[in-house]
Write a structure and sequence with these properties.
By secondary structure, this protein is an alpha/beta fold. It has 2 domains: 130 residues, NAD(P)-binding Rossmann-like Domain (Rossmann fold, 3-Layer(aba) Sandwich), CATH 3.40.50; 179 residues, Rossmann fold, CATH 3.40.50.720. Strands 8-7-6-9-10-11-12 form a 7-stranded parallel β-sheet, with helices on both faces. Strands 2-1-3-4-5 form a 5-stranded parallel β-sheet. Helix 1 runs parallel beside helix 11 and helix 5 packs across helix 7. It is elongated. It binds glyoxylic acid.
């Protein structure tokens, strides 16, 4: 029996790689950098399944280059803004993602960033390394307290809720704005974003990237934040208008910001944001823990393998492609 042909756009953790190799005839891009568009267009030709990363742009052109036998696209990420899902749906191709397993790791990073930006950790470390630490100073490197303050979550899905859970232990009052989410973990629903921005001392963004959230954090948003507020973004870079953020930080309109995601990625080293003491930036490491990346690779592989075997994907972002096809009892 011929094995399904798949293209995997990067070497992923063994948990996933082994599963793919067991079942499929896998062509694996082994470069450290993502394959170029030309390489992608070439290597997908004739495959039954594609496992891609958030660094690969998947649209109708790529799906057509693969050919009509392509029956699954599996994204090694929970976010799927790198894929034009409507193009996949129009061709009847299910798209898989990796929800759930990276919730805690991403919430941990959001909280680490919040604490680091509030207490000026990167700045304090630079202070030490640059030989400025001469004595214990009553007024040096003073940051913001958490206890008794308000954390505003923009987006209250799995990750937002996991951040709320952590916030309880820090005596933060938690409010959120998300028209579709129900309250949980003691968080209070705000009917409007304005209301949230008026009250929050810390604002953490947990929305997907789409046309309604692109540049959601713009000059107007930032001007509505409290003067000493801290912004944290672990969602997607383009949710923040970085030029507006630079102005707000430079003029101390807000206290500080901490970003795990930027626009573009990687952030060019001449980005004005990197000249600011009150802006902490890390290179999209929200899910970068040993266990989480192993689990992501396994889940992405399970989606891929299910797809090429003609089964329903365990995690599918466009289940409408199945119509009322019946897959047997669960
Ligand atoms: C990471 O950013 C992901 O979406 O999985």
């Amino acid at each position: 029996m011929t094995r399904p042909k798949v293209f995997v756009t990067r070497i992923i953790r063994d948990a996933g790689m082994n599963l793919i190799r067991e079942v499929c005839d896998a062509d694996i891009w082994d470069g450290n950098m993502p394959p170029s568009r030309e390489v992608l267009l070439e290597r997908v030709r004739g495959v039954d399944g594609l496992l891609c990363l958030l660094t690969d742009f998947v649209d109708g052109e790529l799906l057509d280059a693969a050919g009509p036998q392509l029956i699954v696209v599996s994204n090694h990420a929970v976010g799927f803004d790198n894929i034009v899902v409507a193009d996949a749906t129009a061709r009847g191709i299910p798209v898989g993602n990796t929800p759930g397993i990276l919730t805690d790791a991403t919430a941990d990073i959001a909280f680490a960033l919040l604490l680091a930006a509030a207490r000026r950790l990167p700045e304090a470390e630079r202070y030490l390394r640059n030989g400025k630490w001469k004595t214990w100073e009553p007024s040096a490197l003073l940051g913001a307290d958490l206890a008794g303050k308000t954390l505003g979550l923009v987006g209250f899905g799995r990750i937002g809720q996991a951040v709320a859970k952590r916030a309880v232990g820090f005596d933060l009052r938690v409010i959120y704005h998300d028209p579709t989410a129900l309250p949980g973990f003691g968080a209070i629903k705000m009917n409007s974003l304005n209301e949230l921005l008026r009250e929050a001392d810390f604002v953490s963004v947990h929305t997907p990237l789409n046309e309604s959230t692109r540049h959601l954090v713009n000059a107007d948003f930032l001007s509505r934040m409290k003067p000493n507020a801290v912004l944290v973004n672990t969602s997607r870079g383009p949710v923040v208008d970085q030029a507006a953020l630079f102005d707000a930080l430079k003029t101390r309109q807000i206290f500080s910001a901490a970003l795990d995601v930027t626009d573009p990625e990687p952030l060019p080293l001449d980005s004005p944001l990197l000249t600011l003491e009150n802006c902490l930036i890390v290179p999209h490491i929200g899910s970068a823990s040993e266990r989480t990346r192993n689990d992501m690779s396994r889940l992405a592989a399970e989606n891929l393998v299910a797809g090429v075997m003609g089964k329903k994907l365990p995690h599918c972002v466009n289940p409408e492609v199945y119509g009322d096809r019946w897959f047997g009892s669960p």
